[in-house]
Specification:
Layout (H helix, E strand, L loop, with lengths): L2 H17 L1 H15 L5 H20 L2 H11 L13 E5 L5 H7 L8 H13 L4 E5 L13 H11 L7 E4 L5 H12 L7 E6 L3 H10 L5 E5 L17 H23 L11
Parallel strand pairs: 1-2, 1-4, 2-3, 4-5
């Protein structure tokens, strides 16, 4: 990949570490607490209140669900009687390659639906090619492991024939998933490719694949919302779930903007 792609990867990781709502609000709270013991104690009290209220809002209020709903509703699931696809693309982000290697057992760390639905689709469409794309998202890669290796171990255990699998092992983000997988697979005009990823991640993913010249059919998984009005008015407990959800959904909205500004998607908010 080019130098620009490397810079984009490292900057996105670094900047988001500081900009994630939970990290930013915690930093405000800590700075405010430290200022309480200085001549700027009045400002410190204000920062403590701001940080505490912000954490409560992000953790208990359904803010993460409000952010997730439009993302997850953007691309509907394909009909049950859809035509057989040429292949199924499974985006990385589920497998924990470090724990898999350490424990000798395939370990799903997040978004399990990407993997379970991929296996279900593979059995439903026995002639479809399965492409898993995911390398290592470690900022300083020292382990030499990649997510594709962990995915291969899981797929084998679940009975998928290795000859059906194509593994892309170098990508570190969704843009590289699309570009590197396309170069590896070389899809042809008229082919039907399903894209399997989390529903909240689908708009950006489809936009990236389209911009890369690979039209795909969305197959969303791992829904965080239930599609009801009631869930948007009820508090989230435990608070840790609300903070995690807010962080992930805020990152996705920021990612949509950043990828569009960078020319990596075909629209600010891609649609079917």
């Amino acid at each position: 990949m080019s130098l620009a792609n490397h810079l984009f990867f490292y900057l996105s990781k670094l900047l988001w570490w500081f900009a994630a709502p939970s990290n930013l609000l915690t930093a405000i709270l800590v700075v405010g607490a430290l200022l309480l013991f200085t001549r700027w104690s009045r400002g410190g009290r204000r920062l403590v209140v701001l940080g505490a209220l912000g954490l409560l809002l992000c953790g208990i209020a359904p803010l993460g669900l409000w952010l997730a709903r439009p993302l997850e509703d953007r691309f509907p699931s394909p009909p049950a009687d859809m035509a057989a696809p040429t292949g199924i693309i499974v985006l990385g982000g589920s497998m924990d390659q470090l724990t898999t290697a350490a424990r000798g057992q395939p370990t799903i760390g997040a978004a399990p639906g990407r993997m379970t639905e991929a296996v279900a689709l593979a059995r439903r469409f026995p002639d479809a090619r399965i492409v898993f794309t995911g390398g290592s998202a470690e900022v300083f890669r020292t382990s030499g492991l990649d997510e594709a290796g962990a995915a291969l171990a899981l797929f084998r255990q679940l009975g998928l024939a290795p000859e059906r699998l194509t593994l892309e092992r170098e990508s570190r983000n969704t843009y590289e998933n699309a570009v590197l997988s396309k170069a590896l697979v070389k899809p042809q005009p008229g082919e039907r490719w399903l894209l399997v990823t989390s529903a909240w991640h689908m708009p950006r993913s489809v936009g990236i694949f389209r911009q890369a010249g690979w039209p795909v059919i969305a197959y969303p998984t791992d829904f965080e919302t239930r599609g009801t009005d009631r869930e948007l008015t009820r508090p989230i407990l435990p608070m840790s779930r609300g903070l995690d959800l807010t962080d992930r959904m805020a990152r996705e909205w920021v990612g949509l903007l950043a990828y569009r500004v960078g020319g990596r998607t075909d629209a600010l908010f891609p649609s079917p």
